[in-house]
Amino acid sequence: MGKLTNKTVESLVRASIPGKTNDGNGLYLQISKAGSSSWIFRYKHEGKGREMGLGPYPIISLAEARKLSTEQCRILISGTDPLGARDAAREAKRETERQAQARRVSFRTLAADYHQAHGVGLSEKWRRNWLRKLELYAFPLIGDLSAGDIQTEEVLRVLQPIWSAKTRTADEVRGQIEKILDAAKARGLREGDNPARWRGHLDNLLSKVQKRKARQREHFPAMCWQDVPALMRELTQRQELSAAAARLLILTGARTQMVRFATRDEFDLDAGVWLLPAERMKMRKAFAIPLAPAVVSLVRSVPRVENSPHLFPGRGQSGVMHVNAIRVLLHSLGHTEITRHGFRSSFRDWANECTHYPREVCELALAHDERNQTEAAYSRSDLLEKRRALMNDWAAFCMGGVQ
Fold first, then answer.
1. Please, what are the domains in the chain?
2. Which residues contact residue 89 at a Cβ distance below 8 angstroms, ignoring those fewer than 6 apart?
3. d(Cα 73, Cα 78) in Å, to the nearest integer?
4. pLDDT digits (tens, 9 = 90+) for 266-283
5. Which of 136, 153, 217, 398 is most buried, by the most CB atoms less than 10 A from its CB?
């Protein structure tokens, strides 16, 4: 039988005198300096005195407080720290809630979250294609599963049907799944190894040969750099707007989209610079291309079309030259084996074999900034004048023999 009664407790609470009143069996009524009242359980574990809150009065009555203190005494007698046991129970409850939450979040939702977080600053085309591959190959099979439910078997169910016929696409989807599941793990929505990991895992289950072949096919067919001057002579003799666009593409190392959507106000011909705004660049970072004298002359020679801001206008909805105009021209000249993007490789191979320009200058000429974040922070120059010398040499090579 405890020392306190309900009337005693009520009297102590009304008096609001700070202190602790013993009921026995480790149970105390505690009145704080602020006047609030609560129950505590005082005990020793491994020689150390500890206090454990059992709840406020009158929400917890005297009878309930005695029952709670008795439970803690039983835990103590078993050799367990009551506070440690309570913390463990709370953590187990939180873990159960986390697992329940993880089961409620589908892979489809996780993919959308990842897409939103990592698609900022990237092109609309990238964002659209990134989701499209998952919609075609992953969502129908694992879209409604939680991150914790996706194991190796589920990943293989997505990849195996397309690994042989569409290896490159399959590997891209594998990489997407891996990143999404890594993000889910960082959010506490799954545990364990990533079932979409290639090295040391899926490379034991899927053909490595197929993957190597797919990687090799990623390279765009390119014209040998030795053959570029001959092509330039052919292009100079053509009057089509697509021929001028092809020459600009080759001489600047630009991407096709950069050339197609080029506007006249982007060119500072007096300074010999093509200034591309961030929204027109693949990595959403403004970029300046130095123009060789031959390129300045080329841009000046392109006839202006009234009411169009574009250098190479077209009649379609986009208002610019058709996406396949340069390719059609190249095919008409008998160059069916090369691609427009491949001229960037032609330029890079020429720079490697015929010049001594530093690698970072050659890469930056293609808008590839390979500096890490620390290097970029301390070296913010875009190496414009060094790139100008490189592009002047490239133009001189390409235009050799052109009248």
1. 6-102 (3.30.160.390), 107-217 (1.10.150.130), 225-398 (1.10.443)
2. none
3. 9
4. 999 999 999 999 888 877
5. 398
Long-range CB pairs of 363-369, under 8 A, 24+ apart, other chains included: 365/253, 365/390, 365/391, 366/253, 367/281, 367/282, 367/283, 367/287, 369/283, 369/285
> How are strands ordered across the β-sheet holding 48-56?
19-24, 27-31, 37-45, 48-56
Token digits of residue 191: 């545990």
Distance CA 6, CA 19 (A): 18
Burial of 117 (0-12, 13-18, 19+ CB in 10 A): exposed
β-partners of residue 37 are: 31
Whole-angstrom Cα distance, residue 399 to residue 295?
10
Q: How many CB atoms are closer than 10 A to CB 403? A: 6
CB-based contact 24:2 (threshold 8 Å): yes
Burial pattern 81-98, b for ≥16 Cβ within 10 A else e, equals bbbebeeeeeeeeeeeee
Average pLDDT, the chain: 87
User: How far apart are alpha carbons 291 and 285 in whole angstroms?
Assistant: 19
Q: Where residue 103 falls among pLDDT bands split at 50, 70, 90?
A: low
What pLDDT does residue 14 have? 92
Rounded to an integer, what distance in angstroms lies between the CA atom of residue 182 and that of residue 258? Answer: 34
The answer to whether the beta carbons of residues 258 and 276 sit under 8 Å apart is yes
| Of residues 143, 144, 151, 146, the one with CA closest to residue 103 | 146
Q: Residue 161's closest CA among 153, 152, 170?
A: 170
Report the distance separating Cα 37 and Cα 19, nearest Å.
10
What is the Cα 143 distance to its own chain's centre? 19
Nearest residue to 241 (alpha-carbon basis) of 317, 157, 322:
322
